[in-house]
Amino acid sequence: MIIHFLGGSTRPIHTLLARFQKEAYMSDDIDVLEITAGNLQSQDWMKQSARPLSTIDLDPDLLSSIVKDAEIFFNPSSRRFYMSTGHLYCKGYLLYGPPGTGKTSMCMALATHLDLKVVKINMDGMDDKDLQEAFNLDTDCANVTRRPQGTTNEYQSGHRDSWAPENSSFDLDIYGSGLGRQPQKPKTPKVVMLSGLLNIIDGVSAPTDRLLIMTANGPSSLDKALRRPGRVDRDFEIGYATKLTAEMTFKWVYGQDELRSYTLQAIDRMAKAFHDQFPAQSHITTAQMEDYCIALRDQPAEAVKRFVQWLHRIKPGEDGFTYDINDAEVDGPDSEVNVSDPYDAGLLDLVSEDYVVPPEEINQSSPEEEDEVPPPWLDIPLFAI
């Protein structure tokens, strides 16, 4: 391949080649290792679908801030920079917001973007010693998830981290309140205590060369000891969907579909209508938006038309998520939440040029085309329970 470039610098060529090299080595899957209390020495790696950053529907400025900061941290020069300033080479993030807003997806997208492995450590049934052993495994990464078990005073969870060959990134999901207080009546013989977790994060034997990402529904329910500088250096609110992020979801769901019937220009026009009618103040998560659009696959106009009806159905709580109301920020009267705005119905008017294959051509198939054998279906199982 020969590349010709007019200019006085070769930097654009090197940037282009570096991008080609990165995309060539990037896989469609992420390597995932799950470790449990009864299988601390597990080395059974699994494949999980990669999550491109393009599928993360966050405000562009917020997404850019998170990604750029992580890229700087994993830059080869960063370890030397931290050492020169007398700091340990480690950093902590806190992503907080209601369930379904994309916190875990953001972590997986970062792992995809930075080409990191992921280890899931299910902390249910572990004590401090087990957790320390899990972190000390000879792997390229580690990851933690916390799930609520019984009373809010128990800290029993799973843990998810990921790191590059010379760097590490931990992703810790935290739910509930009263984290780390001594449980009065533990339901299992083993419990990870707050003191044990803090010792692993930044104690004498704590691992360095890592980025710790904690995710939580309600930040105020977290113990202040977890949020002090050095453990959480930056926090990012991952909130409900907005007009902008709803339009982004609409575009990538309908625009990237190989079975789409409409041109990208037509989809962009319908996305504008969807943006206009989306509530100025919503309690709708990005997960709900994705499910709604995917349920109406290749029906973007119907997605716009049926949105108000769907909005009324979830308004009283149907199809909604449970959220710690004590941590919610009140933006205004409840009557102003999830109220749709008007839109120009003319944006949904379709002409022949708006279709990938005009309707008149679909109805004029030749006898040879009618005899064509349809492509084979995917060879995957169907489960019925």
Pick out its properties:
9 strands, alpha/beta, 2 domains, 385 residues, Rossmann fold, nine-stranded mixed sheet, 14% strand
Explained architecture:
One of its GO terms (molecular function) is ATP hydrolysis activity. Belongs to the AAA ATPase family. BCS1 subfamily. Keywords: Hydrolase. With 385 residues, the protein is of the alpha/beta class. The protein folds into 2 domains: 12-237, P-loop containing nucleotide triphosphate hydrolases (Rossmann fold), CATH 3.40.50; 243-370, no CATH class. The protein has helices at 11-25, 60-73, 78-84, 103-113, 128-135, 194-202, 224-227, 243-255, 264-277, 286-295, 300-305, 307-314, 359-362, 367-370; strands spanning 29-35, 45-49, 90-96, 118-122, 143-146, 157-162, 168-174, 210-216, 234-237. Strands 1, 2, 3, 4, 5, 6, 7, 8 and 9 form a 9-stranded mixed sheet that branches. α8 (243-255) runs parallel beside α10.
Question: What layout of secondary structure does this protein have?
Answer:
Layout: H1 11-25, E1 29-35, E2 45-49, H2 60-73, H3 78-84, E3 90-96, H4 103-113, E4 118-122, H5 128-135, E5 143-146, E6 157-162, E7 168-174, H6 194-202, E8 210-216, H7 224-227, E9 234-237, H8 243-255, H9 264-277, H10 286-295, H11 300-305, H12 307-314, H13 359-362, H14 367-370
Parallel strand pairs: 1-4, 3-8, 3-9, 4-5, 7-8
Antiparallel strand pairs: 1-2, 4-6, 5-6, 6-7
Helix pairs in contact: 8-9, 8-10
